[in-house]
Amino acid sequence: MHVRKNLKGSMTVELSFLMPIILLLIMSSILAAFYFHDKNVLAGAAYETAVVGSTKIREKDKVTGGELEALFRERAGRKCILFAESSVRASVGKREIRIRVTAYKGRFRMSADKKAAITEPEKYIRDIRKAKERADGTKDYH
User: Fold this and answer.
1) Of 75, 129, 136, 142, which has fewest CB within 10 angstroms of its CB?
2) What is the pLDDT of residues 97-120, one digit of tens each?
3) Domain containing 127 — which CATH number?
4) What pTM was estimated for this model as a whole?
C-alpha cells in the first residue's frame, strides 16, 4: 500500500528568490571589506612614506620624488587584495611632502592624498631657549 501525501512547493519557490539576495548581501559585504582593507593599506603606506621623507629632509639628506615613490611601492608591496596595481605621485616642496595614490579596479576607484610637514624642531627648541635666556638676562645677544 502506497500512501501519497499532498506536498506543496511554495517553500522551494520562496527560497529560490531569497537565496540569491542572501548571497548578494554576503558577497557585497566581502567586497566592501576588501575595498576598505586596500584603502587603509594604501593610505597608511602613503602617510608613512611622507613622514619618512620629511624625516630624511630634516636630517639634511636629499630626497627626490622618485625615491619616495619607490619607498611607497616597497611599503605597499603585495598587501592589497582588490587593488593590485596603483599609481603614486610624490612631490617634495619647501614646507611639505605630498604623496598621492590612485587605484582602479573595474568601476571601483580609490585615492589617497597624504602630506607631512617638513619641520625643524631643533631650531624651534633653540629659539625658545634663546628667548628664555634673554628674558632671564643670563646671556646677552646684542
Assistant:
1) 142
2) 999 999 999 999 999 999 999 888
3) 3.30.1300
4) 0.75
